[in-house]
Write a structure and sequence with these properties.
397 residues; alpha/beta; FAD/NAD(P)-binding domain; D-Amino Acid Oxidase, Chain A, domain 2; 2 domains; eight-stranded mixed sheet; seven-stranded mixed sheet; 12 helices; 18 strands; 38% helix; globular
Length: 397
């Protein structure tokens, strides 16, 4: 593993943040022959706030990149059925094999992020943990030309790069220092409390909905099941945050008394974690010498469990744009990101409002499913050879 003192003075690309979005972007850029440095404040394989679930688009990406076998080898259970519970009624959906995906998976971030870092290193990227970016380096004209880095031990280093990519999350320092504007803001936000339980057998993903609350039940590594309880942000702030354990039990009981009884007989492993909620947004995705990927550039409420899938999708769209060497391709990346995300964003915002009836949330889930199918088709099209007309236009451009 690379050390801070092994960081060179110049790279084609520096990626700030080496979790799902950042490590995947670094891997893909290195596979295209660019010199890449990725840094992250946390340690290798450290956990992070996440409920783990991958949708079909995310699994498809891991399969296309050759990373999915590592997810399977880590013992991540294959999910072949998703069940939506609306009050006392249930709707089951089998995960049918297609497009190279025969199951869904929900790997712990300690597993997924480490696999992506390993794949980035295998591709030739340099990934260094325990390092934070302190500032952006700019030319006299204001163009970003690199970063200043600081190690946990206090060492400092200035690194030049043709492009700095912020993959450093919702509160991205790269976005703030680059002056990336928020171009679209969600109206709602939900609070979430989640934990992991042993001895809680479940059949695939289970999503529960009742008036004003919801819960998700997600099988993950080490025989554990992640159970999240979600509610409007105002309720989380007024009531739930003061006692996460009591709030978690109360919301799960409201959603499904039967499941709450099963959960009470299971063994909680580790502590509960809470997220008070934050409105989703689209930020500018690029500017002179910089770009954003993952939650740094586009974030939506976690209630639809689509954040990791978004990150893996956008990592490839950005890497392809960067590899062209043309700045206009970054504008195309932003346009494609926004087009693929808009419907997902709006439906998620509506679900996060919790002002729906059970019939209405079923309709919203159908809209969500349609949007995810479109996303999968867009990812599959990345491997398709260009049509004759499209190729002619590309060559003459």
């Amino acid at each position: 593993m690379s050390r801070f003192d092994e960081i060179a003075s110049r790279y084609d690309v520096v990626v700030v943040g080496a979790r799902a979005a950042g490590a995947a972007t670094a891997m893909l850029l290195a596979r295209r022959g660019l010199s890449v440095l990725a840094v992250d404040r946390s340690g290798y394989g450290a956990d992070t706030l996440s409920t783990h679930a991958l949708m079909r688009g995310g699994v498809l990406q891991l399969a296309r990149w050759g990373v999915l076998e590592g997810v399977r080898a880590a013992g991540t259970p294959a999910v072949r059925r998703t069940t939506f519970h609306y009050g006392d009624s249930s709707v089951g959906v089998d995960i049918r094999p297609r497009d190279g995906v025969d199951a869904l998976f929900a790997p712990r971030r300690t597993v997924l992020d480490a696999l992506l870092v390993d794949a980035a290193r295998a591709a030739g990227a340099q990934v260094v943990h325990g390092v934070r970016m302190t500032c952006l380096v700019r030319s006299l004209g204001g163009r970003v030309q690199g970063v200043e880095l600081e190690s946990a031990a206090g060492g400092r280093r200035r690194v030049r790069a043709d492009l700095v990519i912020g993959a450093d999350g919702v509160r991205s320092r790269v976005a703030r220092l680059a002056g990336a504007r928020v171009e679209r803001l969600a109206r709602r936000a939900s609070g979430v409390v989640y934990g992991h339980f042993a001895g809680l057998e479940v059949d695939g993903y289970n999503w529960h909905y009742a008036a004003g609350v919801s819960a998700g039940v997600i099988p993950t590594n080490d025989g554990l099941t992640c159970v999240f309880a979600a509610m409007p942000r105002d309720r989380f702030l007024a009531e739930i945050r003061w006692d996460l354990a009591a709030g978690h039990r109360r919301v799960v009981e409201e959603v499904s008394p039967a499941f709450a009884g099963r959960m009470a007989r299971a063994v909680k492993i580790g502590s509960l974690r809470g997220f008070p909620g934050e409105p989703g947004f689209f930020r500018e995705a690029w500017g002179p010498g910089w770009a954003l990927v993952g939650d740094a550039g586009y974030f939506k409420d976690p209630i639809t469990a689509h954040g990791i899938t978004d990150a893996l999708r956008d990592a490839e769209l950005l890497a392809r744009a960067v590899a062209t060497g043309e700045e206009r391709a970054l504008a195309d990346f932003q346009a494609q990101r926004d087009a693929l995300s808009s419907d997902l964003f709006e439906v998620t915002d509506a679900i996060a409002g919790y002002d729906w009836t059970l019939d209405e949330v079923q309709r919203l889930h159908r809209e969500l499913s349609d949007a995810m199918k479109g996303e999968v088709q867009a990812l599959l099209a990345l491997d398709a050879p260009p049509s004759g007309a499209a190729e002619t236009a590309r060559r003459s451009a």
